[in-house]
Write a structure and sequence with these properties.
The chain is an alpha/beta fold. It is built from 15 helices and 17 strands. Helix content is 41%, strand content 22%.
Length: 393
Amino acid sequence: MSDATPFLLPDTGEPGFGVYVHWPFCAAKCPYCDFNSHVRHQPVDQPRFVAAFLREIETMRRLSGPKTVTSIFLGGGTPSLMEPATVSAILEGIARLWHVPDGIEITMEANPSSVEATRFRGYRSAGVNRVSLGVQALNDTDLRFLGRLHDVADALKAIKLAREIFPRMSFDLIYARPGQTVETWEPELRQAISYAVDHLSLYQLTIEEGTPFFGLHKAGKLVVPDGDLSADLYEATQEITESAGLPAYEVSNHARPGAESRHNLTYWRYGDYAGIGPGAHGRLSRGREKLATATERNPEAWLSAVEHAGHGMVEQEVLGTDEQADELLLMGLRLREGVDLARWQQLSGRDPDPAREQTLLEHGFIERLGNSRLRCTPKGMLILDAVVADLAC
C-alpha cells in the first residue's frame, strides 16, 4: 500500500466506512478478557490464514459494493503476533477490492510483551500508521493481577518505540481495579498522560461472564469498587484528562482535538464496516436496510468454513429502520458530540417522546445542541444505559 501521505485526512464528521480484521490468537488469555482470543501452543499457519482473510474480504466486498475506506483496524487477540508480511498481504488485499485513499487511519493493536523494533518497522512499512498498545496498568503488582505478560519496563519501552516509529499512538489502561482509590489512581493516570502522544483509552474493569474473574467475583474472592467509588473514579478521570488537554470524546476514550480514533468514530456514528476474521461483526447498508454479520468464533472452524464457502459467516441478519434507530441511539449517545437527531428521526419515523425527553432534561442527564443534536451530559454518562433505554421507548 502507498504510504506517500503521512498526514491524517481531516475528519469530515461523516460516519465513514471501516474495515475491521480480527486476528484471534494470543500468547496468553487474560483473566478479565471476554474477547474472541485463543492460545495456540503450536505455530499458526499464517500463509493459510492470509489466504482465508483474502477470500472473506472478497465476500464482504460483494456484499458491500464499491466503497471508499475511511479506516482500517487490525484487532484481536494480539495482531502484533502477525508477521509483517501477513499484515502487508491483508492491507494490500483490502486496497485491491475497495478504494483506500492515502492518509486514512490504519491502526494495529499490540501488546507490549510482543513488541519488537523490527516488527514495528515492518508494520509501518506495510502501511500501519497508528498503534494501540494494551498497557492496562503502570504498576507491576496490578499487571500480574491482570494476567499480563509484560511489566512496566516493557510497557514504557513499547510506548517509546511506538512514538518513534508511528505517526500516531494510543494505549489502554484499566482502572477501578480491586483496592484502587481516587488517591492511588490519580498519580498513575497523570503518569500515563505524560507518556501519551494524543490518545488514551481508559476503561473501568468489568466482570464479564465466562471469564476467570467472573468465578472469583461470584465466590467473593475478587471485590471491585462499589458503584459510588466507581463513579468517583470516573469523574476524577474526566477532570484530570480534560485539564491535561485530553478530553473524553467518548465514554472511555480521550484525545487531543483532531486525534480521535477515526475507526471507532465509525462505530459510534453508526457507519458501515466490514468485519473480517474469526468472531468479527459487521454492518453493511443495503438501501434502507442494514445487514448485520457475524463470523464463526473458533479460528480453525472459521478457517475451514472460508476454505469451503468463501466466508465464515454464521449470522446475516437484516436490520429494519426501527432496529437501526435503536443502534444509532445506543452508539451515538456514547459520544460527546451526541446523536444526529435528523438521522434518528428519519430511521425511527418519530420524534423523541416529549415527556421522557423533558424528564431527562430536567434531571440534567441530557441536553440539546440546537435543534440538530442530542447528547448525554457528564452526569448522564454515569447512567448511560438507563438514558438510552428511556429514549428508545
